[in-house]
Amino acid sequence: MIPKIEDILDECLERRFGGESIDDCLAAYPEQASQLEPLVEAGWACRRNCAAIRPDAEFKARAEYELQAAFYANREEVARTVIIPIWRRGWAMAMAALLVVFVGGLGTAAASANAVPDEFLYPVKLAAEQVRVTLTWSDVDQARLHVEFAERRAYEMVEVAREGKADKVSMLADQVTRHLGEMCLRDKTEEVAEEGSRALAPMPAASGADAYSEGKGTEGLEAFLSQSRAESVQALTDALVRAPEVLKPIIARAMENVAEDYDRTISIIQNTSGQ
Amino acid sequence: MSIEKDVVSRAIKGDGEAFAQLYRDYFDKIYRYVYLRCGNRAEAEDLTQEVFVKALEAIGSYRWRNLPFASWLFRIAHNHVIDQLRKQGKVERVELEDNIVVADEPNPALVAEERFEVEELRDKIKKLSPAQREVISLRFGAGFSTAEVSEALGKNTGTVKALQYNGIVALRKLMLGDSAQ
After folding, report:
1. How far is B152 from chain A (nearest CA, A)?
2. Domain ranges of chain B
């Protein structure tokens, strides 16, 4: 039985995509070769042109980061929706935390502490941070955690800058801003009582992605980081005025660390672009 | 167990790194497919990201025996793109733009040429019938095999091969029409 022309074309395309020459692909079908050749060429051209369509690398990295956050938020949401009688929820949460800590979670979380974006354990680090925030009830302690995580992101920014990952730098700067915004929310309970929910409007997040893509290079990134640094330091300065005494030394230290890490990151980027 | 099957199994069980691996493996393919269907870079980025969010939400219910993972993921992409096009009340967006990302190519002339060719191709694909367009986008944009296209679209392989054949013949005619002008 003679195979149909569409079957032969499909076979020839598969072989062509697999690296064979067009003559080799057509050799098995000499009678149909003249009809098939232009079609295989057209299919090959189509495939080659399609391969040139690629997403923006910075967008792709940012989307992955956001997806990871959604992944862990999703798991947390699933965990929350497990039906547990309300009087037993506190015990269930406590038991879950104990399991995480004593059945091996602590080891993994500890091992992930120095992970930076793109490393295998980095999602574990983010998840562990999320768990710590979830298991912390006091606003003051949550604010303290967000300051700590902002410092971590700033430190990671220096590390990824050293590795030349500019897209990750801008993303981490966004995360610094986000954590400081969260810290401000926890720090505003008195204002909420006076102003209502308006006081909970988050700090306008600087968009590292936009700034980076507008500048299309290290100059844009430097400008964005300088702006982000100023906003972060300003957020911490404002928080220092309002914060309870117990948080003040932590915020003061964070101001120094975050500013220093921004400066180191900018310096690395300047040196890299100058080479 | 194949490597991908293992990765998918781990993702189903809540392994974030496994899901990230699937994301890295499929993001570009989904993006190319969506881009060819909607014809706009920013929209393609948003839709591709949304496809992965939907996959994340649904992965717990995925069962390997029913459908290979790639086909499952592309079915989500296909449905999402169709939904969006319907919501916007259009079949396809026809617009030329100059912001297609071309891979690390230092030569501006080559970049321009590649960009032009991609736009030309996208323009021609839009002129195909919806079924041909779907098959060509999956087969050449996403790099699927005919069997995978048939599973993703729920059509038999004979139909997919016929649509591919007719689609390529139509594309070839459109290419010849251009060169004759």
Report:
1. 17
2. 1-95
For residue A203, give the 3-state DSSP assignment.
coil
Does the beta carbon of A10 lie under 8 angstroms from any beta carbon of chain B? yes
Query: In this complex, do B56 and A67 lie within 8 Å of one another by their Cβ atoms?
Result: yes
Q: What is the pLDDT of residue A157?
A: 83
Q: Hey, CA dihedral for A168, A174, A175, A180, is it positive or negative?
A: positive
Q: How far is B104 from chain A (nearest CA, A)?
A: 10
Task: Write down the domain spans for chain A.
Answer: 57-135, 137-275
Indicate whether A215 pLDDT > 50.
no
Distance between B38 CA and the closest CA of chain A, angstroms: 13
Q: What is the CATH number of domain B1-95?
A: 1.10.1740.10
pLDDT at A135: 75
The ipTM (two decimal places) reads 0.78
Q: Is B110 on the interface with A (CB under 8 A)?
A: no
> Can you tell me the distance from the alpha carbon of B94 to that of A150, in angstroms, rounded to the nearest whole number?
44
At A82, the amino acid letter reads V
pLDDT above 70 for B48: yes
A24 at B interface, C-beta within 8 A: no
Q: Does B177 touch chain A (CB under 8 A)?
A: no
Mean pLDDT of chain A: 72
Nearest to B32 by CA among A71, A18, A46, A209: A46
Q: Residue B28 carries which side chain, given as an amino acid letter?
A: D
* Least confident residue range of A37-51, B26-40, B98-112, B127-141: B98-112
DSSP code, position A117: T
Which residues does residue B101 pair with via DSSP β-bridges, in sequence order?
A54
State how far the Cα of A16 lies from the Cα of A43, in Å rounded to an integer: 9
Kindly determine whether residue B52 and residue A63, on different chains, have CB atoms separated by under 8 Å.
Answer: yes
In angstroms, the CA B27 to CA B148 distance is 17
Rounded distance, CA A242 to CA A81, Å? 36
**What's the number of CA atoms in the CB half-sphere (13 Å) around residue B118?**
28
- Contact flag A43-B101 (C-beta cutoff 8 Å): no
Q: Is A215 on the interface with B (CB under 8 A)?
A: no
